[in-house]
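Hey L., structure's done. Input below.
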Amino acid sequence: MFKESHITSKKIADYRITASQLNAFDWFLHNEKDNAEQELISTINRDSVGHTEPQDKGKSFEFVINLCLKDDNIITQIIEHSVESVIVDFSSKEHTFRFKFDAEIIVKMYDLLKHQRVHSQQVFINKYITLQSEKRVELYGYVDYLTPLTVIDLKTTGNYNFPKYITNWQTYVYGYILADRISSVDFIATDFKNVFHEIYNIEHVNYIISFKDLQ
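Output:
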């Protein structure tokens, strides 16, 4: 068994683990690609591998949504002027893309997040676990949105099938860290044609069993 502890001051951990790294490890266990192990190591080491067009498109869409949440006038202008699409130019060291987003999808995503009463964005969260070996593990991450009752992660995808995020380690990491503050981990996703909402009530997820695997 392991003991958990909340720590507010900086403490050294033997291991620091994110949901993304756990997702990468899960992918490695179920993947037969020849370079699967190297891709896992690159993810763990946070090696820079550049950006793909879908990744940059997702970042651009999230940028637009966050702008709208910070300034309600943007959504008001989109609605009042019957804007059909919003164009974003994304530039990086590798390349430049121009993305066009359906304004109706932006409004739907904005309305759903506003309905959830988002009060904080990009919030750092963490919790420490002490293993039987006395090794200390820090689970940590940045959550996209916090609301009074939920933590929300915004997703963009080229192909959506329900339930897409049921095995995502963010459900377990975020739910475990914030179990005393929230009631669910939510994923609000879009394939740029529709908006989807997946809700995972933390009372139905056995986080203790999940994190025994860390030992």
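The longest helix spans residues 53-70. The chain is about 35% helix and 30% strand.

-- N.
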